[in-house]
Specification:
- With 228 residues, the protein is an alpha+beta fold.
- It has 2 domains: 12-124, no CATH class; 132-227, no CATH class.
- Helices cover 54% and strands 15% of the residues.
- The protein has a 6-stranded antiparallel β-sheet with strand order 1-2-3-4-6-5.
- Helix 2 runs antiparallel to helix 3 and helix 2 packs parallel to helix 5 (105-145).
- The radius of gyration is 27 Å and the shape is elongated.
Length: 228
């Protein structure tokens, strides 16, 4: 039974009544949609969806700036989510008779979270790199100008560690051909996983870099993502 809203009984103008009526029906539509979604899944199914969202956010936060101290936390989160996936698989069978295709929604949420994990992680990593690039370029200019001395082999630049955003180590070289290369190590893992970014004034990473780093991916002119 529809109840006449109080504001239709007052002395509001026609346009004001129309605006409030439109707002009223929009709110009813939103509440109706929320109620429909609420009925689509069981309580356990909703918990699986929430767990999928929490896993995705937590894992992206950990992997966006990976560190050795967070390896165990990342492993714990992944193991917990693996348990959630198994539970959602079992739940899809348990709820099938009552909910039919809707019983697959919790499992679909898990699959969707896994599917977007890598592409979303790359977008976040690129955003962090763009934010840090200003500090990296400032160090590169100092190396190219000679204000930071380098040798023909890669050597650590301790004074640059504080300048480079989110980098725990900076190494630079100027080879016999005058090519300047600067490495910014931004992430580390267990047992010997490292990654970061490489600047090369020639626009090529160089054979020495490619032989040491299995993953070399160009992210910008003269800039490369490196990882082992």
């Amino acid at each position: 039974m529809w109840v006449r809203p109080w504001w239709l009984n007052g002395s509001l103008s026609g346009s004001a009544r129309f605006t409030m009526l439109l707002t009223y029906h929009r709110q009813r539509s939103i509440f109706s949609a929320i109620s429909h979604i609420h009925r689509m899944m069981s309580r356990h199914g909703k918990l699986v969806v929430v767990a999928s969202v929490i896993w995705l956010i937590a894992s992206e936060m950990v992997t966006a700036h990976r560190a050795s101290s967070l390896v165990l936390l990342d492993l714990f989160i992944s193991l917990c989510f693996f348990g959630v996936i198994i539970f959602s698989f079992v739940l899809s069978f348990a709820d099938w008779r009552q909910r039919r295709w809707r019983a697959l929604l919790p499992l679909a949420a898990c699959v969707f979270a896994v599917a977007i994990f890598i592409p979303l992680g790359r977008l976040i990593s690129y955003a962090i790199f763009d934010w840090s690039l200003v500090s990296y370029e400032a160090i590169v200019r100092q190396v190219e100008s000679g204000s930071i001395p380098t040798s023909a082999e890669f050597s650590k630049i301790p004074q640059a560690d504080r300048q480079a955003r989110l980098a725990y180590g900076v190494f630079a070289q100027k080879d016999t051909n005058g090519v300047v290369r600067v490495m910014f190590f931004t992430e580390s893992g267990f047992p010997a996983l490292h990654s970061g970014y490489l600047y090369s004034s020639s626009g090529e990473p160089g054979s020495g870099v490619e032989s040491r780093w299995p993953i070399v991916r160009k992210v910008k002119d003269k800039w490369f993502y490196i990882s082992n």
